[in-house]
Design brief:
The protein contains eight helices and 18 strands. The chain has 302 residues and is of the alpha+beta class. The strands form six sheets. It has a seven-stranded antiparallel beta sheet, with helices on one face. Strands 2-4-3 form a three-stranded antiparallel beta sheet, covered by helices on one side. A two-stranded antiparallel sheet has the order 7-10. A hairpin with a 2-residue loop joins β12 and β13. The longest helix is centred in the N-terminal third of the chain and has 22 residues. It starts with a strand and ends with a strand.
């Protein structure tokens, strides 16, 4: 999945912890083999190769995950869309840092995307694309799903206190460290240009801190991958409906019981903006916004 996974465990039995961590990380590798669109032998890649030609019978696991993606797309009014890959490519964010598309490329890409072209048949357990050359990208969902599966494995091994992180952007906090009420997670301030750190990167200041117990947090931000053109900053977080990167928001952090939800919803909350999120988010979600407006600093939604 192009990501580093880390597991932090607290327990009195070191052997139990080591075995549980090994099994959890092996699950991440298994899911990479299932979901990667970089590996031609993965089930996800088989779907992309064949589903435009005929319905493809898929595993229960992949079917349920694709069904969840369709539901996120429907509820987000199309702001979440796993078919966004062609837009990412023409904007240069697929294996790159980004560049302006050529004239006509955006309209052409928009004609080849859209979650409504994904046809799921639950009775036959198949997926079909009703448009030639259509394909799907797991980038907006795969890490979150993997983290949740890793948590399930740790729980089944008797682990009660752990932190599982996928690339630092999708994190699940199980239980709490000794002497704490939960895991303390720092949310960076995207407006802070940062300072040099010992590893040669720039460490941003803290916008806020969240204490999590048996909860997940995911963050999406325009500072993760972007380029500057025509005096504007263009980020990798795409609005599939317009064909352009979303603007006005710097970062969104979502806290919820499942990492699948937090990773999926950071994108439409980023794309649709604060007012839409206030009207549509579940009451059990906590959302932290940083916007590109001086009068609206980083703040939790009420």
């Amino acid at each position: 999945m192009g990501s580093t996974y880390s597991v932090v465990l607290y327990d009195e039995d070191r052997n139990k912890m080591q075995t549980a961590a090994d099994h959890a990380l092996e699950e991440a590798r298994r899911l990479d083999n299932l979901l990667s669109n970089y590996k031609p032998e993965s089930e996800w890649s088989k779907v992309n190769r064949e589903a435009s030609a005929h319905p493809v019978r898929i595993s229960n696991e992949l079917f349920d995950l694709l069904a969840a993606c369709m539901e996120y797309s429907r509820k987000s009014e199309g702001a979440f869309d796993i078919s966004v890959g062609p837009l990412m490519k023409i904007w240069g964010f697929y294996k790159g840092t980004g560049h302006m598309p050529k004239p006509g490329e955006i309209d052409a890409a928009r004609r080849s995307i859209g979650y409504r072209h994904i046809v799921l048949d639950r009775a036959a357990h198949t997926v079909y694309f009703d448009q030639p050359g259509f394909n799907i990208d797991p980038g907006g969902i795969g890490k979150g799903y993997a983290v949740d599966r890793m948590v399930d494995i740790l729980r089944s091994a008797g682990i009660r206190n752990a932190l599982i992180s996928a690339a630092g952007s999708s994190i699940y906090c199980l239980g709490q460290p000794p002497g704490e009420s939960g895991w303390r997670i720092q949310i960076e301030d995207p407006k802070d240009e940062g300072r040099p750190s010992v590893v040669g990167e720039r460490a941003r200041g803290r916008a806020t801190e969240a204490v999590l117990k048996n909860e997940s947090i995911s963050t999406s931000g325009s500072s993760e991958k972007f380029f500057v053109a025509d005096g504007k900053v263009w980020s990798h977080i795409m609005d599939p409906r317009t064909g352009y990167p979303a603007r006005g928001v710097l970062s969104v952090s979502v806290i919820a019981p499942r990492t699948l939800d937090t990773e999926a919803w950071t994108k439409p909350y980023f794309v649709n903006g604060r007012k839409w999120t206030e009207a549509h988010k579940p009451s059990s979600f906590r959302v932290f916004y940083c916007e590109d407006k001086a009068e609206q600093p980083c703040a939790w939604l009420q």
